[in-house]
């Protein structure tokens, strides 16, 4: 008998996967049965990755498996949620065992790391595409949202920005960088780290939060719009990796950080009154957040500054135009 859909699910997505106590019934029936903890709200996010659009043929299957979960866990992180369950809709052009092995390893590794269980999905034939839905919990009323920023709040970003964009530019030969820098930034493009622990730490602290998938400028603007506020950013405060600053000139590095996507860091706002608690909460965090500016009352106005003056790097010959 040919290796069919059920063999595929059994071989790659069932045996030796992490299990959780709150899953009454996982893969195998018509639907999953799940227990939501009392006094919690369920947080749900879905993201799709399409071959040729969100990743290309060079992308290792293990990276695709990691990333399709990571982008969803990053959405949960931005809500302050604790991840619990994932489901997977998989569309495959053919039965490719090497690809499925790599993909399922990548997905299983990140599930194990974040204590998530794959609770079901769907498998169809067609152009390669993956959709993951992630489910998580927050205590009732405690979720982080985009609409809570207030004038005077401080703006932070976690980790460093621009690396994934540099990796993509190098891969597409739009920029030339050293092998060691390339390895560094490619790791960030292929294996992003969703800031799950940080998001949960921010629950009682941040007034708003978002994850950076489309670039700081684009994503911060979602907070500004939802919260009906503006922002001042000091471009020299934006955290940049040595791989980025060592590969392009200073204003270009800032432009990557501002405009290129795929970093999956968190951008969030902290009221002055919560700053002490916040500093304690994040003291030992591995992707330690950096303060980059402040929320203003000027609705939807994003002002990029250097030494208090408007920063011109975005419109200069090395800047923003590269990304538009
Ligand atoms: P149905 O036809 O009832 O929708 P399916 O044949 O699509 O059932 O799926 C059988 C079982 O396998 C279900 O529990 C479903 O959630 C699970 N499943 C299907 N595809 C996947 C996948 N890619 N990953 C994980 N579980 C899957
Ligand atoms: Mg089905």
From TrEMBL:
CDD domains, per database record: ThiL
Binding site residues for Mg(2+) 4: 30, 75
Binding site for Mg(2+) 3: 30, 75, 211
Catalytic class of the enzyme: transferase
Amino acids binding Mg(2+) 2: 47, 75
Domain PurM-like C-terminal as annotated: residue spans: 150-299
Annotated positions binding substrate: 54, 262, 320
Secretion signal span: none
Residues that bind Mg(2+) 5: 214
EC number(s) on file: 2.7.4.16
Superkingdom of origin: Bacteria
Annotated binding of ATP, by residue: 121-122, 146, 213
One term of GO molecular function: thiamine-phosphate kinase activity
Magnesium listed as a keyword: yes
Record keywords, A-Z: ATP-binding, Kinase, Magnesium, Metal-binding, Nucleotide-binding, Thiamine biosynthesis, Transferase
InterPro entries listed in its UniProt record: PurM-like_C_dom, PurM-like_C_sf, PurM-like_N, PurM-like_N_sf, ThiL-like
Residues noted as binding Mg(2+) 1 in the record, renumbered to the chain: 46-47, 122
Any Pfam family matching the protein: AIRS_C
Occurrences of domain PurM-like N-terminal (ranges): 28-138
Any single GO BP term: thiamine diphosphate biosynthetic process
SUPFAM superfamilies per UniProt: PurM C-terminal domain-like (SSF56042), PurM N-terminal domain-like (SSF55326)
Chemical reaction(s) catalysed: thiamine phosphate + ATP = thiamine diphosphate + ADP
Functional note: Catalyzes the ATP-dependent phosphorylation of thiamine-monophosphate (TMP) to form thiamine-pyrophosphate (TPP), the active form of vitamin B1.
Misc. comment: Reaction mechanism of ThiL seems to utilize a direct, inline transfer of the gamma-phosphate of ATP to TMP rather than a phosphorylated enzyme intermediate.
Sequence similarity: Belongs to the thiamine-monophosphate kinase family.
Protein's UniProt name: Thiamine-monophosphate kinase
